[in-house]
Amino acid sequence: MEYNKSTIVTEFILLAFEDSPQFQVLLFMACLIIYITCLAGNIIIFLLIYFDINLHSPMYFFISRFAILEITFVSVIVPKLLDILIAGRNRISFVACFLQLYLGNTTGITECCLLTVMAFDRHLAITNPLRYLDLMSQWCTKLAAFPWAVGLVASSIMTIFTASLKFCGPNIIDHFFCDLAPLQNLACSDPHVSNLVTSILAILVAVLPFIIIMGFYTHIIITVLNIKSVEGKYKAFSTCSSHLIVSNLFFCTSITVYVQPSNSQHDKFLAFIYTIVTPLLNPFIYTLRNRDVKQAFFKKL
Q: Where, if anywhere, are coiled coils annotated (predicted)?
């Protein structure tokens, strides 16, 4: 079908999971339960760290900020998805779509950078324990602000390049939220430059942080293996394992989607994992694998 290039698209239609109409109510219930559990879990983590003085350390400071970020991230995506599933309101205005794109990218990129900062924190604590508290007391606030600065700038660039494309007819997005690749695929103008900029930024803000994190943990493992005390080894591994699980789950899915987007159902499934399922699992991973958090939780009961 040919479209008039003078036409201006004013709204988009999100297909979400329209290919499975018989499961719409079930999907709604599942997403609602996941969303409520995610909010409750991350709020509990934040409040535990805020009110328990034993958890007032750099590591838990970053975990509390990570919990806030997860609440923000999932709240950008899920409310509209729930509206689509239960009420069928799958139309979204041009401005609202690009606002969701901007906020989703901002929180997603910020998460990549914050996970890197958290890996640096664990690396410094294990490889240089004598200077750890002194250094982190100076850097903590700046390190927590840095991911947001990167997220805001990188997301602005991605959104501006995507919004500069011409949308003159096709307006059906085969996704459950406004994301980069599905939007770029609808453009009437040549998206080559936008795709190139997006891919380069995806490598810088997703692939590079993941490589840095793996580098930190390689050095951590080498350092821990040289610890003579079995208890010391266990404590070091237990404090790092939660973060490593969360990082791998988030990065492996998001990198697959953004560095090599295929606009397929497979990408939609992976996006569901890192935008909705991962924020749900994080509070349980940190609680179940962290003795201090578990003690603080049961003490408050």
A: none
